[in-house]
Design brief:
CATH architecture of the largest domain in chain A: Alpha-Beta Complex
Distance between the termini of chain A: 35 Å
Strand order of the largest sheet of chain B: 4-3-2-1-5
Largest interface: A-B, 91 and 98 residues
CATH class of the largest domain in chain B: Mainly Alpha
CATH topology of the largest domain in chain A: Nitrile Hydratase, Chain A
Helix content of chain B: 25-40%
Largest sheet of chain B: 5 strands, antiparallel
Radius of gyration of chain B: 20 Å
Radius of gyration of chain A: 19 Å
Oligomer: heterodimer
CATH class of the largest domain in chain A: Alpha Beta
Order of helices and strands of chain B: HHHHHHEEHEHEE
Number of domains of chain A: 2
Number of strands of chain A: 4
Distance between the termini of chain B: 25 Å
Strand content of chain B: 15-25%
Strand order of the largest sheet of chain A: 1-4
Helix content of chain A: 40-55%
Shape of chain A: globular
CATH superfamily of the largest domain in chain A: Nitrile hydratase alpha /Thiocyanate hydrolase gamma
Chain lengths: 214, 219
């Protein structure tokens, strides 16, 4: 497999300026027609966008993870009934109706993908990144997860087993990364800053306190 | 269907290209595409399964060269025409000409927070007990239906272990085609990498899918 096809395909938006202005016109026309018919409310669109730009994002998931790190009872609840445990922190709703939390251990690293579309736990991670929805990740995460992880600069010990979760039904998976060393004195608020979005998909690890400061 | 969306194990797409500090949206139209898609979903005229199927019916050449928001919009145009809300020619001209069907709901700005917070749960009770139990060996069926299905090609005709009984959920193969929700038990089934990818599989790899009961047979 060569990297030649990176330049003439779609794994970055910057190659696509003309195509993107076509889409701008197409979507504007669609919004105009639906608004003329009274079927949609442009202000509702603004409210949806604002929700996912400012309210529902990976900080929600980071809160869940940090709480699980400091509170063994909460971690147990997450294992038994992630939907309810996550709802107790106020995170519910669209694409988070049926949650499962999967815990990384010293032996096993979890990686989440949706090979068939773009299923993603919106209520805790917000909108998925472009790469999560693109063919390169969806095709290779199930077959070549170590190769994929290397592209995120994650190299796991050879002895670590990788478990890939293909989100083929309505369950949505949140990875609980391992708590970094040297964080015993940190509280939930401090720990949240170590929990990256990618660490909750499985394409990253939680940051060490020193990495966070860099 | 064996469509362009069923990507697990395909090759040739090159490396994953994570973007540092990726913005939520890469263009203004992506924001509108998100909001329009969710607003139209609120009509109650089609299910999430029908909308997924509309996306996977996009011609492979278009599907594989489109961003995901473009995939959403292409499929949405099909759904709007199918359900008599807007014709393709109206959308092409950017001007409403025909009377639209009456949606069950119109999503107004004041309802957005409640609708997003509620979501759309897909679990439904079933009368029967689960056919399979945790720890049981099962084989996935070897079917290539022309209709919507959620059993990926790479996981067909493979032997795995039931790891969890996850509850009973709307059956997408039927619901995508207006044949009713017909809920079934869903199981997390885990496969050894070698069972799927053969001798070249990464050592220690396991892959799971969430499979509706009719995707599985006892071994």
């Amino acid at each position: 497999m060569t990297t030649d096809n990176r330049d003439d395909h779609h794994d970055g938006h910057h190659h696509h300026d003309n195509h993107y202005s076509d889409m701008e016109a197409r979507v504007r026309a669609l919004e105009t027609v639906l608004t003329q018919k009274g079927l949609i409310d442009p202000a509702a669109i603004d409210a949806i966008v604002e929700t996912y730009e400012t309210k529902v994002g990976p900080r929600n998931g980071a809160h869940v993870v940090a709480r699980a790190w400091v509170d063994a009872d909460f971690a147990d609840w997450l294992k038994r009934d992630a939907t309810a445990a996550i709802a107790s922190l106020g995170f519910t709703g669209r694409q988070g109706e049926h949650m499962r939390a999967v815990f990384n251990t010293g032996d096993t690293h979890n990686l989440v993908v949706c090979t068939l579309c773009s299923c993603y736990p919106w209520s805790v991670l917000g909108l998925p990144p472009v790469w999560y929805k693109a063919p390169a990740y969806r095709s290779r995460a199930v077959m070549d997860p170590r190769g994929v992880l290397a592209e995120f600069d994650v190299v796991l010990p050879e002895t670590t087993k990788i478990r890939v979760w293909d989100s083929t039904a309505e369950l949505r998976y949140l990875v609980i990364p391992q708590r970094p060393e040297g964080t015993d004195d940190m509280d939930v608020e401090q720990l949240m800053h170590l929990v990256t979005r990618d660490s909750m998909i499985g394409t990253g690890l939680a940051l060490s306190p020193s990495a966070r400061q860099k | 269907m064996n469509g362009p969306h069923d990507l697990g194990g395909q090759m040739g797409f090159g490396p994953v290209s994570p973007e540092a500090n990726e913005p939520y949206f890469h263009a203004e139209w992506e924001k509108r595409a998100l909001g329009i898609t969710l607003s139209c979903g609120a009509f109650g005229a089609w299910s999430i399964d029908e909308s997924r199927h509309a996306r996977e019916c996009i011609h492979p050449a278009n599907y594989l060269s489109a961003s995901y928001y473009e995939i959403w919009i292409r499929a949405l145009e099909v759904l709007l025409e199918r359900h008599d809300f807007a014709s393709r020619s109206e959308v092409a001209e950017g001007h409403a000409r025909m009377q639209a069907a009456q949606p069950k709901r119109i999503l107004t700005a004041d309802k957005v927070a409640a609708v997003l917070a509620k979501g759309g749960p897909c679990d439904r009770p079933v009368e029967s007990a689960p056919l399979f139990s945790v720890g049981q060996r099962v084989r996935t069926i070897n079917e290539h239906p022309a209709h919507h299905t959620r059993l990926p090609r790479y996981a067909r005709d493979k032997v795995g272990i039931v790891e969890a009984v996850q509850g009973s959920f709307v059956f997408p193969d039927d619901n995508a085609h207006g044949k009713g929700e017909n809920p079934q038990w869903v199981y997390t089934v885990v496969f050894d990498g070698q069972e799927i990818w053969g001798m070249g599989s990464e050592p220690g790899l396991t892959v799971s899918v969430d499979a509706w009961e009719s995707y599985l047979e006892p071994v």
